[in-house]
Amino acid sequence: MRDRKWSRRELLKVSTASMAGALFAQPLRAATIPPTAVTPALIEAARKEGKLSYYCALELNVGERLGKMFEAKYPGIAVRVERSGAERIYQRIAQEQGSGINAVDVANSTDPSHYLDWKKSGWLAAYLPEEVAKYFPADQFDPDGMYATSCAWTEAIGYNTNLVKPEDAPRSYADLLDPKWQGKLVKGHPGYSGAILTATFVLSRERDLGWPYLEKLAQQKVMQVQSAADPPKKIQLGERAVMADGNDYNLVLLKDQGKPVEVVYPTEGSPLIIVPTGVFEKAPNPNAARLFQSFFLSAETQQMLVDDYALRSFHAQVKEKPGHTPLSALKLLKADPALVQAQSEEIKARYSKVFKV
What we know:
The structure is a single chain. The chain is α/β, with parallel strands linked by helices and 357 residues long. It has 14 helices and eleven strands. Helix 8 crosses helix 9 (210-217). The radius of gyration is 20 Å and the shape is globular.
């Protein structure tokens, strides 16, 4: 057991049934623990530890920026950023915890269902930062203080403005089935990306889309890439004219830089991707971990993520950057993480069969 490679199916087999209604399916509960403020005593205890390990599923430049900001704010505490994809982080933590290795202090993942597992396993620590309790909606943090949403984005359609005229651009997922887009589309893969897995789950359950839509899309000779960050890069380079899915923030940033891209929020709705963060119960640097969690979810850091990386924040004091479309203006398609968790292996297998990848 200590050296085996755990499959997602094995890890979820026992706990899925009991967690199926754990998130979003029940009425919201009030926080069960008191919020914690950042105090001089916490800062001093964190400085004595002098370091922390942050497992990061955000893009590397974002993770490194967070680390440097924290080190500048709290001199004497070094942040080791361990960046990887959500599925790899999930696997690594499972192997470490199963072997009794306590290496992770704080982790975030683009797959919220991971936190259901980690909470069920008793791997997360109860810690509710004061700003989260005060400024975040109740549906964006665990009432037991095990995790909170560090940022979010949507999956979107996009196109290269040098290759597609605005009047010809797709406005919906259904538009992507037009024969004129055959051989001109690119999209991510749910077997690699937690965000694309969530988006695929959402679209497969939409009444007017579903698997019949995905089966038709697969006939469009779609270029298949891995990460949800890859399709925006492909259309920016002109390798494909249109992306069928991908992170909206990458396109927004490229457009801000003057690149020939445009984001389209589909008329059917945009899959919402939330990115939780949590402190681990057996963190080797527990005080530094809690200080980093409070820093990550503070108005200052949340505003930086919005302004500099076009990510979304649920912090009530954070303002959307002028010229960027706010979440409140979008029709959002939300996933139940417990159901994504229960169906993840089936979704990935069926997708691979349909798209022959």
